[in-house]
Amino acid sequence: MNVQVRGKNIEVTPALKEYAEKRLSKLEKYLPKIDVVHVTLLVEGDLHKTEVTIPVAGYLLRGEEESPDMYSSIDLVVDKLERQAKKYKEKLYARFKNNKNIAAGEQSAETTPEPDNEIKIVKSKRFAIKPMSPEEAAMQMELLGHSFFVFTNADTEEINVVYKRRDGKYGLIEPEV
User: Per the database entry, which stretches of residues form a coiled coil (predicted)?
Assistant: First the structure.
């Protein structure tokens, strides 16, 4: 496993890098084929934040944690990633064992913003979209801890969105031209 550690507003000491590598090596028992792990250590005021991204077979395991101590932040994010890795492995096992399908739900209703509230985009992300099934997209969404996931449907080759409904089931939004 290649652990790439970089720092923002902090100098990454050999001891800090070694600690991160040692703690992240715990994940190899759940995900033995991890090639690279991206770790970003940053200091914002009094908080020490650790961000870790692990690409695994087309999916992303990602965790962020912050605390007053960098070593504690690393411990917290490794614990979070360990839970994600267990969940990923269990879902992968269950999917291949039972071959369960996620039912596509109805489309979510569009809501109109109130006229006196200004819409402001505060963060923008870019990411590569990999063709996958809606079931794989739902699993990726759960691993990331998000309420929706944008992906390219492998069957239709169109951009789709899978989302978690209030009743705990999953919905699929497909474009209609």
Answer: none
User: How many other CB atoms are there within 10 angstroms of residue 169's CB atom?
Assistant: 11
pLDDT digits 0-9 by tens, 10-58: 999 999 999 999 999 888 888 877 888 999 999 988 999 999 998 887 7
CB 160 within 8 A of CB 151: yes
> CA–CA separation, 60 vs 80, rounded Å?
13
This prediction has a pTM of 0.57
Nearest to 151 by CA among 167, 173, 169: 173
Which residue(s) pair with 75 in the sheet?
none
Residue 5 β-bridge partners: 39
Give the model's confidence band at 173: pLDDT under 50 very low, under 70 low, under 90 confident, else very high.
very high
Q: What is the rounded distance in angstroms from the CA atom of residue 95 to the CA atom of residue 82?
A: 20
